Amino acid sequence: MREEYHVTLYSQMGPREGRLDLQYEGSAVTGSLELMGRRNPVHGVRSEDGHLCLSHAIRTAVSTLFCETALELHGERLTGVTTADVCRMRWEGSRISPEP
């Protein structure tokens, strides 16, 4: 199964808009996070109650943050928090409906 989300990451430098693409195979999750013009691979696990635990990097023009992200899925919406060595950032997002 595949899902796509329009996401907003609330960083110290303000909100950053992006796209999270996820593919599920059982409880395993793979995909990508496109943010600030860069595509970053993600991987992790999904629990039966809709929680995602993802590991990924966020690359910018000047640095790379190695992150752990905890997300909760609520129907068409997701919320969560990313933790890196130097910061914590809040997430919000909504599922992008597939085209008919």
Q: What does the radius of gyration come to? A: 13 Å
Query: Which CATH C-level class is it?
Result: Mainly Beta
The second-level CATH architecture is: Beta Barrel
Largest sheet: 8 strands, antiparallel, barrel
Query: How many structural domains?
Result: 1
pLDDT averaged over residues: 92
Strand content bin: over 45%
Given the C-alpha coordinates, what overall shape results?
Answer: globular
How are the secondary structure elements laid out?
Blueprint: E1 2-11, E2 14-25, E3 28-35, E4 38-46, E5 51-59, E6 64-74, E7 77-83, E8 88-95
Antiparallel strand pairs: 1-2, 1-8, 2-3, 3-4, 4-5, 5-6, 6-7, 7-8
Provide the descriptors you would attach to this structure in a database record.
mainly beta; 8 strands; 100 residues; eight-stranded antiparallel β-barrel; Lipocalin
Write a structural description:
By secondary structure, the chain is mainly β. It starts with a strand and ends in a 5-residue tail after the last strand. It has an 8-stranded antiparallel beta barrel with strand order 1-2-3-4-5-6-7-8. The mean pLDDT is 92. It has one domain: Lipocalin. It is built from no helices and 8 strands. β5 and β6 form a beta hairpin.
Summarize this entry quickly.
The protein has no helices and 8 strands. The protein is mostly beta strands and 100 residues long.
